[in-house]
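Question (not urgent): is this output format expected?
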Amino acid sequence: MPDHSQGRPRKVARGTISVALVLALSGALFAANARLTRDSEERRPHDLVDLARLEESRNQRLTDEAVALRAEVADLLDAQTSTTGLRLPATSDAERVASAKIPVTGAGLTVRLDDAPPRSTSANVDLDSLVVHQQDIQAVMNALWAGGAEAMTLMGQRVISTSAVRCIGAVVYLHGLRYSPPYVIEVIGDPDRLQAALAKDPVIDRYQDYVDTYGLGWSVATQDALELPAYEGPADLAHAAVPQGVEVMSHDVAAAPRKQTTLPRGTSDEDDR
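Got this back:
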């Protein structure tokens, strides 16, 4: 009878080595995957907060890349014009300030808006009355422009003609970045004219009623020397539409008086709060 006892230990040893090799490779793969997941900024977000932070980081990175590319394009255009002898019309300092292409320094105001402090409220108090809304910020900015503002920032970002402030949940978005209260607006211009424009604006006057009743934050401070940065984002206009409540006039009725519509505070179809 043939003796099979010598073949069995070899099979067991071969199987043991195979299992150990598989376990070692699996452990190496798990370790590499954990290291890549920990080190990578593009890891999959676990909730909406992580997703928002990831998108903000990506937006900031893309903005920095766009700024560098625009500077490179400007250098290439300068080199091309110097080679061909073509000279583009020079822009004045006023035009560059208006387009926010250069930083500016000067006297002006700092306006600060904040939500009401935490408090125990009765059931009949609308929670919307305790927060700063998108239209509150817009009203301040519009009044400052009307008061002769030369340059303006919101939360340190330079505001241009295509800037859009959007209120989503409990935060405000500007140029793809989100901000929580308090909201700080810095503006360069004649301080007396700017304060007078704020004082006579009816929307801001209504906001002051909420300041007195519910404790919303509001402060205006005169500044002798503000330094506002240049705008570094894209200036292309994506789309435009006539605001709600504004009557569209044809050329035939251009001379007719315009109908003005004022929305009460906290009622805006663009405000998600």
